[in-house]
Amino acid sequence: QNMVAFPGFNASQQLDQTVQLKAKELGKAIKDFETLEFQMNLLFGDPIADQAEGLLKAARTDEEAIGHVKELARAYTEGDLAAIEKVMFAPEIGMDEETAKHMLYDRNDNWVKTIKDAVGHESIMVAVGIGHLVGERGLIKQLQNAGYTVTPVK
Question: Which listed site, 33, 54, 55, 124, has its alpha carbon 20 to 30 Å from 40?
Fold first, then answer.
C-alpha cells in the first residue's frame, strides 16, 4: 500500500533505521523497547486462521487503505494527532479495541515505565510507530499526564 500510495517509497529506508543511524553517528545511546522475537510473535503469533482473515480484510479494502495511508502521512507530517487517531480507528479498516489493546495500549503502558526510568534529568528522543502516539493511552498523553513535556521533532 505504501508503494502504491508513494511511488518513490523505499521499504529499506525506514524512519526508525534513519533515526538509529543518526544517533549512532552522534554517539548517542540507543535502547530498544522490545526484542525482535517479541515483535515477531506479536505480529505472527496469532492462529493462522486469524492471520488469513486479517490478510483477506486488507486485500478487500486495499483501495480504501491506500487513501488512509496518504491521510496518515499527511496527518503525521502536520502533527495532526486527531486525524491520525481517526484513521487508526476507522471502522472499515482500522483497529478494533481488542487489537488496539494488544498491539498498542499494553505496549505503551510498558514503554512509559521504560521511558520514565531512562529520562532522569535529561531529554531523550523516542521514536515509535504512529499508532503509539494517539489517544488517552497513547505515549504522548501518558507522558504528559505523568508531568513530562513532550515535544515533536521535525
Answer: 124
**DSSP label of 9:** -
Instruction: Give CA–CA dist 57/12, Å, rounded.
Output: 26
Nearest-angstrom CA–CA distance, 153 and 43: 28
The grid coordinates of residue 102 equal 494488544
**Residue 133 to residues 4, 85, 94, 142: CA-CA distances in angstroms?**
25, 9, 15, 10
φ and ψ at residue 136, rounded to 5 degrees? -65, -30
Q: How many CA atoms does the CB half-sphere of 91 hold within 13 Å?
A: 0
Q: Looking at residue 45, what DSSP letter applies?
A: -
How many CB atoms neighbour CB 66 within 10 A?
16
Q: In the predicted model, is pLDDT for residue 109 greater than 80?
A: yes
Taking the alpha carbons at both ends of the chain, their separation in whole angstroms is 24
The model's pTM: 0.79
Tell me the pLDDT tens digit for each residue of 128-153: 888 999 999 999 999 999 999 999 88
C-alpha cell read off for 97: 479495541
